[in-house]
Prior knowledge:
- The protein is an alpha+beta fold.
- It has a single domain (2-90), classed as Dynein light chain 2a, cytoplasmic (Beta-Lactamase, 2-Layer Sandwich).
- 19% of the residues lie in helices and 29% in strands.
- The chain is built from two helices and five strands.
- The mean pLDDT is 76.
Amino acid sequence: GTVILDASGKVVSSSGELAGDESVPSVVQNLLLDCGDLRFLKARRRDSDDSHNDEDTEEDEALERLTISFPGYQYVVAFDADHTYIVKQTVDTDVDNDGSGRLVRP
């Protein structure tokens, strides 16, 4: 399923398993607010790096995607200037090659 939020956090569109589900967008918005402005963490880290390239722009360094993983499924959250996109994906829980309990992709 998918949900698209506008800049204020209002649902613009939803489909599939997430259609009509107000809890997922609300929890994701609150998570992003609790974490601060994640979209610029990479830019701040890069700015403090001595090897900073002046040709890089802050927009080039913005966080593009955040994955929130659970056993069996994950939410992928992506951003643009005006919207937040949330996609719920099924994850293969049988992939645990190293016995750690973490999902390990082949």
